[in-house]
Structures are given as structure tokens and as C-alpha cells.
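Predict the 3D structure for this chain.
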Amino acid sequence: MAAQQLDPNESKYAASARNFRDNVKRDLGNQELRENFRGAMDYLVDKRKNAFPDGDELETLREQCKLIKQRCLLKLPHLLEQLEENLQANGIHVHWAETITDANDIIAQLIAAKNGKSVVKGKSMVSEETALNDYLEARDIECLESDMGEYIVQLAHQHPSHIIMPAIHQNKKQVADLFADNIDGFAHTTDVDALIGEGRRVLREKFCQADVGITGVNFAVAETGTLCLVENEGNGRMCTTVPDLHIAITGIEKVVEFLDDVPPLLSLLTRSATGQIISTYFNMISHPRQSGEKDGPEEVHLVLLDNGRSQAFADEELRQTLQCIRCGACMNHCPVYTRIGGHAYGTVYPGPIGKIVSPHMLGLEATNNLPTASSMCGACGEVCPVKIPIPKLLQRLRVESVKAKHNGEPVMKGEGSGRKSIEAAIWQVWSIMHKYAFIYKTSMWFATRLRKLMPNKIGVWTSVRTAPKLAPQTLHEKVQARQNQQQYKQLQGGK
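Done. Predicted structure below.
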């Protein structure tokens, strides 16, 4: 599992991520968007808090699940081979994809082999990662999202703004207007139940007509060769039972060693994500339709995607990124995400987790702004159910972004892409100045005496802040003057 060289041009998200600063300005100016996110995030934070009334139980569970994920990652190459062996023994076909193009090609070939023309999809962030919908539609294959949130953003020609609640950036009026523009015969209403009912009506027909069902995977159990799928709407179960062909796609990090590893992870996932004690549906898929069974697909295929994950795996510290169980708790508690929303990041995975995942998928050239887009308040690390040290990893990625190039094997693609010669020179001078006391004191003396020459505009810093004003004297000079004054008074008193 050596680090791979990825082509950022493979993903439509690379260019969008490069426009992060412009995206932020755009979305900060959208008052309706900010109100939508503020209300939704406050609601989700309260839901998670109420789902964990016992703080001791939460911390015990977090530590247990962290150790489960770390154990599985330590054995990842072996577990992937074991998973493949047991899935194949169960009658499930396994395919390996190094890049997003490989994954899309594999899926398109599987559909073509069945002469498939229509696809229904359960919620899958990995298929968003590969831009699978666009890929299939370009080949005249209808691909319909069946998760309600995904269905809404598909109608709006957008990508998800949250990994758990894709359409959280839209309020009910916006959804009603969207349905009115896209669904024939829709009677305009902002009643939430009526909106959901209308979506179900459209989707129910598509389930019956679809040739192929595509889903993601929450946990892939190596011990038993089982694909686990967590959902609330029943669309995942429909996608995996009604069409004759079921294709699952997931990242290689989703494998767990034992079936016993799943319950604690599931308990943390549902409560961290939506504040539910348990999800409405938990699907366990171990084989295609067996003789005598009345439903289920004739074929089941699993596509295991790398797309930069091996790069993260190769580094012991960065490997912690792969512990993520995609709950979205870090986003819900992030003050930056709450204010700018998910689309500003320009990536599949927004928010704190996106800042540490996306650089491995898209390269640091496209994403070097993301690790710095953090207040470093630490909220994301405190709520992460598997204790990923997100602030520490953000600091590491900042270093990788500006490190000097060397002749050795790069840790990750695009390292050093954010390095600027003048900035490096300034920090080198700063280092020397603070290393030697004489140089430091001398430079500070000149800085305070020439303070009136300080410019009022200092690049990006003063675009949102006032320029700093130096004091007439350094702190050392003030302390020394105070000590001299006290000594003088003591001498005077002695006389």
C-alpha cells in the first residue's frame, strides 16, 4: 500500500477547492444560508448532547472505538485480503480501484454487462467522491439519488453540503420551490410531511423500474464477509433488494476485523450523527439472493476505493485520519463550518474532517487553504467519537504545505506547494532574531523608535483587522525602568 501519485484533474472538486477564499466571501454574504446553518447546527449539537447523558459512558465508548479503529488500521492490508476472501466465498464479487476513474470504469462496465439503463442510489459519499452520477449520465445511464437529502441536492444540481444531511443548507421553502420547478403536478406546500411524501411518490416508481442499485458501506466485516449499511429512510434496503444488480462502493478504511466490533461503533455513529440511540434500519448483506429466497439481487459487487487513502496509511500520524466513521459531529460543532456552510470548501468532505481528508484525495496544491481555515478551538477533536486529533493533524498538514522540497520520497502529493520564498525568508530572519539576545534587543529597540513608520496596510491581516501599533518602549525597557525607579526609592529611603 505505497503512497500513490494522484492526478487532481481526475476530480471536479480540485478546481473548486482552489477557489476556497472566493467561495467563503460568497457564502458569508448569503444571509439566508447562514441562518439555515445556524439553526440546523444548534439543533444537532443539542441532539448529540442529549444522546450522551452519561459523560463517563461516552468517554469509555470513545476510547473503545478509537482502539477498535486503530487495531483495524494496523492490520488493514491483511484485513482487506481476508474481507475479499470471505466475500467471494459468500458469492460477492470484489473489485479494487486505485483512482476515482478506475472505480467509475468498473461500475460502468458492471452496468453495461447487464444492459442497465437506470440506477437508483442509496446514500454514498464515496460515490460523490468519484462524481459517479456525472460519469454515468454522460453514458446515457439514468442515475437517481434515493436518499431524500441527496435527491434534493441532485434536483438542485448541487453536491451535498454535509456528509450526513446533504440538503441541510436548504430550508423548507427552498425545497418547496425546487419541487415546484422539477416535479410535474406538485401542489406547492411548505408542509414537511407533504414534501417528503411527494419525494417518496417519485422515488417509489423508480425503485420498481431500476436495473441497478448502488449504495455505500458503513462497515465491511472481514471476519464474516458482511457489508453493513446504516440508514433511516429504507431507501438503502430498497436499493439492495429490488434491482437484480447491487453494487456497493466504499473506501478501503471501512473494513473492521470482527462482527463484535460493529455494535460499539454503531452506537457512537448514530448518537454522534443525529442524536438517535439507534438508526431506523441496519442492513447486513453477506450474499446475493439464495435459492428459495423471494427478494434480493442476483449479483452483488463491492468496489474498494483507494484514492489517496494509502498515502495517509503510509504515515503513522496521518493514518489517524482513516479512523473517521463519517458521523459529521466535527462539522456540527465547528464555528467555521457553521458560518460558511459546506459548499464553500469546494470538496466532497467539508468541515474539519474534510480539511484533513481532502488533501490526500486532491493533493495539497488544490487544498493548501483548507488546513489554515480553522480557529484551532479544538471543538472538533473534543467531539470526535473515535478521538481523531484533528487540530494536531491540521498543524501537520500546514507544515507539509510549506515545507522545503527535499530529495527523498514525498510524504504526500503537493507537499511544499504552499511555500513562498519571501515568507520563508521572513521566518528565517525571525528565527535568527529570537535566537540571539543581542540581535533581538537591538532590533526591538529600532522597531519601537521607528514605530511611526509602521504601514497601515499589512496584506491580508489588515483586511479584517486594524494594524498593530508598537509601544514607545519594549517590555524589557519598561521593566528595567521600573526596577531602576524602585532601587532609587530604596536608596532615597536609606538616606
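The first strand starts at residue 93 and ends at 97.
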